[in-house]
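wait is this the right file?? whatever heres the structure
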């Protein structure tokens, strides 16, 4: 028998995973322990305990996406424990979690312009303006965007990165006006990150919420800019949205990123009926 925190430590040593992924695993283990009222161990890897845990999460008001994510994290550790012969494999009685499909929503061009206008009234106007423009141009994930240094960008505005989530290389391009905004923000600085954070990532999320509210936009996160970029590329060049996102296949883009209002703003009607 091994405690799940110890198992998680062994898993992290045995796998090349990001700090963010390890954090998700820790969160799942912590919630499982909160449900059990003690430190969970590999003996708790059984269908009854996991299924009751999923019910507990639902009773706590957790979203289906969150419940499914915690289940996935625990099953990942469960399969690792199985590989170490610490427990049997997950049984077929382990319940799945259905997540309702959602229509992807992105910021429109008008809303992006409103965000840029609102950015000019913040404490860090050049920081926000250059970040918003770069995010819209490239559709990069926030973590990848925040890891860019000025020398990474070629004079023509192109750059290649290794995506932190997938480990795959991806090439993107910045417009001239975005490069100008970046250089204005840097004020001659050529070393270090283009967008160093002034606090924890959570503070950035809260600051964007205030920015969005100042722009008169009711909802949306920084991730919506990634959706906007991919949606407008797909609208202009059908079949290119998923490549713009840096995905390896088209399925996920259509499901989770491409806003149909942008790509297909006017639904097609069948022929008009007479009479």
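ok assuming it is, sequence goes like this
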């Amino acid at each position: 028998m091994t405690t799940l925190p110890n198992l998680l430590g062994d898993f992290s040593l045995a796998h090349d995973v990001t700090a963010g992924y390890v954090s998700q695993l820790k969160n799942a283990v912590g919630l499982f322990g909160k449900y059990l009222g003690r430190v969970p161990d590999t003996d708790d890897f059984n269908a009854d305990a996991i299924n009751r845990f999923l019910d507990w999460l639902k009773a706590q008001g957790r979203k289906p996406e969150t419940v499914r994510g915690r289940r996935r994290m625990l099953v990942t550790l469960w399969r690792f424990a199985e590989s170490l012969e610490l427990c049997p494999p997950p049984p077929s009685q382990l319940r799945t979690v259905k997540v309702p499909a959602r229509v992807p929503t992105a910021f429109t061009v008008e809303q992006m312009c409103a965000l840029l206008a609102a950015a000019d009234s913040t404490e860090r106007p050049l920081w926000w303006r250059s970040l918003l423009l770069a995010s819209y141009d490239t559709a990069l994930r926030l973590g990848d965007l925040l890891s860019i240094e000025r020398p990474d960008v070629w004079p023509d505005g192109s750059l290649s990165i290794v995506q932190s989530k997938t480990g795959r290389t991806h090439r993107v391009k910045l417009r001239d006006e975005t490069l100008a905004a970046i250089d204005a923000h840097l004020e001659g600085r050529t070393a270090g990150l283009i967008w160093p954070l002034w606090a924890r990532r959570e503070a950035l999320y809260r600051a964007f919420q205030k920015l969005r509210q100042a722009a008169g936009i009711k909802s949306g996160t920084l991730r919506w800019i990634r959706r906007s970029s991919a949606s407008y590329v797909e609208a202009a060049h059908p079949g290119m949205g998923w490549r713009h996102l840096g995905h390896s296949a088209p399925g996920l883009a259509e499901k989770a990123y491409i806003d149909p209002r942008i790509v297909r703003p006017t639904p097609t009607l069948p022929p008009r009926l007479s009479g």
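Strands lie at 158-162, 169-173. so i think its the right one actually
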